[in-house]
């Protein structure tokens, strides 16, 4: 069931609160099936989009690796943070919703979405911003370093790499993420060990400029922001 396409899209900016983002996503994804629309609307209470926005430089080209339904790029386009955004994902169905949201936002000339079989097929760039949000815990542990490196190589000189994933710290927040992922994907995931991405970033000449643990509801998130040393 779809919502009416006449739902107005509220204005948002980089200082938007989770409640404001909920209203934005509900309207932006009104042309998508109800389950996805509801999930998109409640996700700002779980995923700290408001924190991510603080580290996105203005006016650049962005690549979202594992973009899903394209919510991060939709937000970046609506806040006019980026000049161009490309999302890629190994799952095709969510990309249809990403394209529908881009149409609703009038951002079809800004956003594009590509179905890929692996990160090797992702656009090469280089990009001013590369994001990888809640992706690596779905990647087999033996492949994570290579996937991270492939994404990092697409960051241009002076560009930023935004990494966010579920916390690996022991406790209820970690368990909450595991249960959540199992409910929606039937996968009992293994978190990325603490310190792993920092080590991989050094190998790719990325400098850590910000690290933060972010609690949200019953969940916990690890945010790492890196900058390309080259250039």
TrEMBL record:
Coiled coil: none
GO biological process terms held by the UniProt record: methylation
Keyword Chloroplast included in the entry's annotation: no
Residue stretches spanning the membrane: none
Domain called Methyltransferase type: residue spans: 63-161
Pfam family, one: Methyltransf_12
One GO MF term attached to the UniProt entry: 2-polyprenyl-6-hydroxyphenol methylase activity
Keyword Metal-binding: no
EC number(s) per entry: 2.1.1.222
Keywords, sorted A to Z: Methyltransferase, Transferase, Ubiquinone
Enzyme class: transferase
Protein name: Ubiquinone biosynthesis O-methyltransferase
Species whose genome carries this gene: Caballeronia arvi
């Amino acid at each position: 069931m779809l919502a009416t396409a006449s739902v107005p899209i509220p204005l948002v900016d980089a200082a938007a609160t989770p409640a404001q983002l909920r209203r934005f996503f509900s309207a932006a994804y009104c042309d998508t099936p109800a389950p996805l629309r509801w999930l998109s609307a409640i996700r700002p209470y779980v995923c700290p989009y408001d924190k991510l926005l603080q580290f996105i430089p203005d006016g650049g080209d962005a690549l979202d690796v594992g973009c899903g339904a394209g919510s991060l790029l939709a937000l970046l386009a609506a806040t006019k943070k980026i000049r161009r955004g490309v999302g890629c994902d190994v799952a095709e169905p969510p990309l249809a919703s990403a394209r529908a949201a881009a149409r609703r936002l009038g951002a079809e000339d800004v956003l594009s979405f590509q179905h890929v079989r692996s990160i090797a097929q992702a656009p090469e760039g280089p990009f001013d911003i590369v994001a990888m949000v809640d992706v690596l815990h779905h990647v087999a542990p033996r492949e994570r370093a290579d996937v991270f490196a492939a994404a990092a190589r697409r960051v241009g000189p002076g560009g930023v790499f935004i990494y966010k994933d579920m916390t690996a710290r022991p406790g209820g927040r970690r368990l909450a993420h595991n249960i959540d992922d199992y409910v929606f994907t039937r996968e009992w995931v293994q978190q990325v060990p603490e310190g792993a991405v920092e080590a991989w970033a050094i190998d790719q000449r990325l400098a850590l400029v910000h690290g933060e643990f972010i609690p949200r509801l019953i969940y916990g998130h690890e945010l790492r922001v890196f900058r390309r040393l080259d250039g």
